[in-house]
Design goal:
Distance between the termini: 33 Å
Helix content: 25-40%
Bound molecules: flavin-adenine dinucleotide
Low-confidence stretches: none
Largest sheet: 7 strands, mixed
């Protein structure tokens, strides 16, 4: 990656937020990342008529999410790992793990030579199709579930203008929400935007029905007309880039005694609609490091505690990510939803230690995901009750809000 250009369709941007930032700060890397991120202050919604509506993510300028190129992030992490003495062996595919001896099998992708590597402790961070996890399926009483969405995604690009200038507002995540499908665009530091089209695999509006350039162009003209002039290579990008699938993976145990542990997407892949996959993976690192500091190299103990502490939280963000899919593609354009967002911010302003919107608990704080899920459900009921009778935030019944807040919510321990 540091020598060759990334192939198109594999370079999706990530939205980095508090949990990821905290881990990078702990590793002394955040300051270096600042030059490769673009803060996004809110969602910019594009209607079919090309009307724009900006909706801030948080209560103030500090509550932003950060667009970062996956390639740039990986490069910065590899450089830092090597500076600290890590040795990276490229093009070695792990093809198996021996549950009894703890040895891993590696195939050299260039020579096809297969070798076995003795390993005291293996930490498998090999993504949602983890080969270490595949081997763990052979353990007796290993629990495993994988749930694919009926939707796929495809990366597309909005190039920069003739002088390298961005052609959309830079400090926003752009969304074209259209019910059962949507287009999003995240800014890059070179003035380009990385776009992702989310669409069902099958059905009327689907990847299955968009197979020719003419179909793709016609579809975009009718659904995302203001994006079309910005995407001169739409049809070429569409046919060249792969269609990806999205999966939720849950499993347990996460470890083989003290010999192997799974981490990140390998153990808890989630769908991307809360922008939390990498943030959650980084939070795994924070938590593992804290446990190692506390318990030393007692790996069986560390791994067992790690799973106990994390699984309840990774299950929670997996569920919230699915929920957020409906919110992003359907509700962000809905006036009742916009009212609800305003009421949430008003409640947060009045009760900052007690009422924190679910999006903020997940994105701008390090409140455990399981707490965000549970409090979020209570707050959802409260918001339904408060927003039901009104059409403007000015008409909010503060007496009722006071009563509900004091009855249903206790003060929150907020970790920044
Ligand atoms: C469309 C999309 C948008 C997303 N947007 C966001 C976002 O905005 N914010 C966010 O936080 N998250 C986002 N995510 C999720 C995020 O990409 C993942 O959660 C994150 O990349 C997981 O990191 P990981 O290191 O666990 O796994 P991966 O990033 O998958 O890395 C796994 C690594 O292991 C290597 N590998 C795999 N198999 C083997 C093997 N057998 N042998 C050796 N090496 C192997 C791979 O080459 C890769 O380097 C998004 C995901 C998608 C699909």
């Amino acid at each position: 990656m540091r020598r060759v250009r990334m192939s198109a369709g594999r370079s999706i941007n990530l939205a980095l937020s508090s949990r990821g930032i905290y881990a990078l700060q702990q590793a002394g890397l955040w300051e270096r990342m600042r030059s490769i991120i673009i803060p996004m202050k809110g969602r910019m919604m594009h209607s079919v008529a090309a009307d724009l509506t900006f909706q801030p993510y948080g209560k103030d300028e500090a509550e932003v999410i950060n667009s970062i190129s996956r390639a740039e992030l990986n490069i910065a992490l590899m450089n830092a790992a090597e500076e600290h003495g890590a040795i990276i062996h490229f093009n070695r595919r792990c093809t198996g793990y021996d549950l009894k001896t703890g040895a891993i099998r590696l195939r050299d992708e260039e020579t096809e030579e297969v070798t076995t590597q003795e390993a005291g402790v293996v930490i498998g961070c090999d993504g949602s199709a983890s080969s270490i996890r595949a081997e763990m399926l052979k353990l007796s009483r290993f629990n495993f579930s994988q749930q694919y969405l009926d939707y796929g995604y495809k990366e597309l690009t909005i190039p920069a203008g003739p002088r390298g200038e961005p052609l959309l507002e830079t400090h926003a995540l752009h969304i074209w929400p259209r019910g059962n499908h949507m287009l999003i665009a995240l800014p890059n530091i070179d003035g380009t935007f990385a776009c992702i089209l989310f669409l069902p695999f099958e059905g009327a509006d689907s990847f299955a029905n968009l197979t020719t350039s003419a179909q793709v162009e016609q579809f975009f003209d009718s659904r995302f007309p203001d994006a079309v002039p910005l995407m001169p290579q739409l049809a070429e990008n569409y046919s060249a880039n792969p269609t990806g699938s999205m999966v939720t993976i849950k499993c347990s145990p996460w470890h083989v005694e003290g010999r192997a542990l799974l981490l990140g997407d390998a153990v808890h892949a989630i769908v991307p609609f809360f922008g939390q996959g990498i943030n959650c993976g980084f939070e795994d690192c924070t938590s593992l490091v804290e446990l190692i500091d506390r318990l030393g190299a007692d790996w069986a103990h560390v791994f067992a505690e790690f799973e106990k502490e994390r699984k309840v939280n990774t299950d929670a963000i997996a569920d919230m990510a699915i929920e957020n899919f409906t919110e992003m593609r359907d509700r962000v354009a809905d006036s009742r939803f916009l009212l609800r967002k305003k009421v949430e911010l008003a409640l947060e302003e009045r009760y900052p230690q007690v009422f924190v919107p679910k999006y903020a608990m997940v994105t701008f704080h390090r409140i455990p995901y399981s707490v965000a899920l549970a409090r979020g459900a209570v707050q959802d009921r409260m918001l339904a009750e408060l927003c039901g009778p009104i059409n403007r935030v000015e008409d909010l019944d503060w007496e009722k809000a006071d009563r509900l807040i004091h009855r249903d919510l206790s003060p929150l321990e907020i970790r920044q």
